[in-house]
TrEMBL record:
<protein>
    <submittedName>
        <fullName>FAD-binding domain-containing protein</fullName>
    </submittedName>
</protein>
<dbReference type="GO" id="GO:0016491">
    <property type="term" value="F:oxidoreductase activity"/>
</dbReference>
<dbReference type="InterPro" id="IPR050416">
    <property type="entry name" value="FAD-linked_Oxidoreductase"/>
</dbReference>
<dbReference type="InterPro" id="IPR036318">
    <property type="entry name" value="FAD-bd_PCMH-like_sf"/>
</dbReference>
<keyword id="KW-0285">Flavoprotein</keyword>
<dbReference type="Pfam" id="PF01565">
    <property type="entry name" value="FAD_binding_4"/>
</dbReference>
<dbReference type="InterPro" id="IPR016167">
    <property type="entry name" value="FAD-bd_PCMH_sub1"/>
</dbReference>
<comment type="similarity">
    <text>Belongs to the oxygen-dependent FAD-linked oxidoreductase family.</text>
</comment>
<dbReference type="GO" id="GO:0071949">
    <property type="term" value="F:FAD binding"/>
</dbReference>
<keyword id="KW-0560">Oxidoreductase</keyword>
<dbReference type="InterPro" id="IPR016169">
    <property type="entry name" value="FAD-bd_PCMH_sub2"/>
</dbReference>
<keyword id="KW-0274">FAD</keyword>
<feature type="domain" description="FAD-binding PCMH-type">
    <location>
        <begin position="63"/>
        <end position="234"/>
    </location>
</feature>
<dbReference type="InterPro" id="IPR006094">
    <property type="entry name" value="Oxid_FAD_bind_N"/>
</dbReference>
<dbReference type="InterPro" id="IPR016166">
    <property type="entry name" value="FAD-bd_PCMH"/>
</dbReference>
């Protein structure tokens, strides 16, 4: 009873004080004196404090894991001790970094402990400039910003504000994947804390099977506190990126994507080229249907005319052009710090599908679905991502747990709407209709990128249709997380 009263008093005090040093009071309140004190740099936040609000604010307001406490960790040992405390008290726990995950399983965390990683966000270049040690709370944009002034680049996301580590664990797509492969392909080793609170290093030589698993299914196996990650010197011509965004009315859809299919079907695709169309609502141009904004990106100072000339010939409504650097690339899609894609407070939903080419009649049907959506969803965007896949497809398919190296396109609606739980079901219904419209008649199985997966997909659709993949993952899950402590994102069962 005395311990329970202490907890109540502590919770009330934290509601007024907001934060408190874990060194001073964490042992006496949360750890019940059964574990060592955490580091001086760690903090704890309870509901009602500003720190708690900041830590639990998510990119999508429709995703609502529930926490009774947030631990802002500063060291690997902080993570270990917090997990051990949670296990001892049968509390769920969840690592938080960028807060961008939208998988429905996140909502299963209730009365949990959030392990906020943002206090661990350093990037240090090592190994004579061939690698970097990146801590688990670092944003993707922070990695690019740390490396670029040093003449370095590496695989990061097409958005600044998500955490860097979680996308690595699911594969990780981005601008440089044609040159360097997926984010997961650039992982040299990871320092991670397992479900029992022990910390290990995983690599090709240490716990090699687990290293295989965390490169594609890593959300299931532990909290990654740091990684050693490949980085690269920028060579001549790699400092600049050229961009051209063509806006077309809907009647140009068939011709635009017929041309894009020609690029996809070439036996040799340039690793410098990404094309990234979107469907967006712009009532000033067309009040009834979405318009097509078709971006062409090229790593270099000028996009070759063979890609831009055919688009100009289709008489776009407008053309936007720029030359920027890697950090500036994310501004074109509103995905840099401070721009709409990084803003919190709205509800967002993703519903991905991988395809081999642009199935034009299906795209036409999806555009019509977008045009008929209720006004509440008018800020939504259809993402049609066509990154270069040269290096991705060169890596043998069994090298990592990432299951979809043959896929050429990543498509998903990005449903965006005011935070309103009454709209969530409608958003899911529309998204599901879009997904199966895109899949219709292709003859392909559904492959859903785990980092975008909604949560109603089968394990085969997320982790691969070859039976051996899921067998191996289930065996490793049983070995490293037998009690399902990491079952809050696309869980393997």
């Amino acid at each position: 009873m005395a311990v329970a009263i202490l907890h109540v008093i502590a919770a009330l005090l934290f509601g007024f004080l907001g934060t408190i040093s874990l060194t001073a009071c964490f042992q006496a309140t949360i750890l019940d004196s059964r574990g060592p004190p955490l580091s001086p740099g760690a903090q704890i936040y309870f509901p009602g404090s500003e720190g708690f609000a900041n830590a639990t604010s998510r990119w999508s307001a429709a995703v609502k894991p529930g926490f009774n406490a947030i631990v802002r960790v500063a060291t690997e040992d902080d993570v270990r001790h917090t997990i051990r405390y949670a296990n001892a008290h049968n509390r769920p726990f969840l690592a938080i970094s960028g807060g961008h995950g939208t998988n429905a399983a996140l909502n299963l965390v209730q009365a949990g402990i959030g392990i906020w990683m943002r206090g661990m966000n350093s990037v240090k270049i090592v190994d004579d400039g061939t690698a970097a040690i990146i801590e688990g709370g670092t944003d993707s944009g922070e990695v690019t910003a740390a490396l670029w002034p040093q003449g370095k680049q590496t695989m990061t996301l097409g958005c600044d504000c998500p955490g860097f580590i979680a996308p690595v664990l699911g594969g990780g797509h981005g601008w440089l994947q044609g040159r360097y492969g997926l984010m997961a392909d650039n992982l040299i080793s990871a320092r991670m804390v397992l479900a029992n609170g022990t910390a290990i290093t995983v690599s090709e030589t240490d716990h090699a099977d687990l290293f295989w698993a965390i490169r594609g299914a890593g959300h299931n196996f532990g909290i990654v506190v740091s990684v050693k990650y490949r980085i690269y010197d920028r060579t001549a011509g790699q400092d600049q990126w050229a961009a051209a965004g063509f806006t077309f009315t809907h009647d140009k859809l068939e011709k635009v994507f017929a041309k894009a299919n020609e690029w996809l079907h070439r036996p040799t695709r340039p690793e410098e080229l990404t094309h990234y169309p979107t469907f967006v609502n712009n009532p000033d141009i067309d009040p009834d249907r979405p318009v097509i904004v078709f971006w062409i990106f090229w790593q270099g100072s000028t996009i070759p005319a063979e890609y831009t000339t055919p688009m100009h010939a289709l008489n776009p409504v407008s053309v936007m052009t720029s030359v920027t650097d890697l950090a500036g690339m994310n501004t074109h899609l509103g995905a840099a710090y401070g721009l709409p894609a990084c803003q919190k407070g709205y509800s967002h939903l993703l519903y991905p599908i991988s395809l081999m080419e642009w199935y034009v009649s299906n795209l036409r049907a999806v555009l019509e679905i977008f045009g008929s959506m209720p006004r509440a969803f008018s800020s939504s965007v259809m993402l049609l991502e066509a990154y270069a896949t040269n290096r991705v497809s060169e890596i043998p398919n069994d090298t990592t747990a990432y299951p979809d190296r043959d896929g050429k396109l990543l498509l998903s609606p990005l449903m965006t709407y005011a935070a309103n739980a009454s709209l969530d079901e409608t958003a899911v219904t529309i998204s599901k209709k879009i997904r199966y419209t895109l899949l219709n008649g292709t003859g392909l199985p559904l492959n859903a990128y785990v980092n975008y997966a909604y949560g109603d997909e089968s394990l085969q659709e997320i982790y691969g249709h070859e039976p051996w993949r899921l067998e191996k993952l289930r065996k490793l899950k049983k070995e490293f997380d037998p009690h399902g402590r990491f079952n809050f994102y696309a869980p393997i069962k």
